[in-house]
Predict the structure.
Amino acid sequence: DGGITQSPKYLFRKEGQNVTLSCEQNLNHDAMYWYRQDPGQGLRLIYYSQIVNDFQKGDIAEGYSVSREKKESFPLTVTSAQKNPTAFYLCASSMSRGSYGYTFGSGTRLTVV
Amino acid sequence: SQQGEEDPQALSIQEGENATMNCSYKTSINNLQWYRQNSGRGLVHLILIRSNEREKHSGRLRVTLDTSKKSSSLLITASRAADTASYFCATYSGNTPLVFGKGTRLSVIA
């Protein structure tokens, strides 16, 4: 079955550490996205990519980095520069930027310890 | 930037009743989409309505769009306990990815 897989489901980060969240899709979608969700809030866009080796900043890109070396993969690194990283991170993919619905992964919950 | 704003923030109804959620947005759009999120899970796409459409149905879901008022509504008929979730509207304006609202938390009591 085609889908989008995020791992790990739970992640704990110590102060000053960089951590990488994985996102893999086998839907042959060109576009991929990272959103952050805080309790009781909507989704805020971190980064998105419409094609391999190209990506754009979203509304809250500071303290995050991404790469898109393969069509199937769009990992997100939460760097030590992100001062408040505790949140639920959602990866999504789509055939185009917004003309069709997005398929979401099941999310990664990141907690700073 | 938050484009869509859902109303109400929370809604509690009895099983079998209809649930109506509203979404207002600020700028012109190409389409508007509704998603469901169960607690601690990813979002699931429910329905997409284009700017030249006024109403769309999918099973027990009915979505309306009024571009003159910049608003949309999602109606879930004959609700079930399994419909308990958060519902988000998202807008696509053609130049950026989807922009999501803060959602409506729906509780359906059996």
In short: The mean pLDDT of chain A is 94. Chain A touches chain B at residues 6, 31, 33, 35, 40-43, 45, 48, 58-59, 88, 90, 92, 97-107, 109 (CB under 8 Å). DSSP finds no helices and eleven strands in chain A.
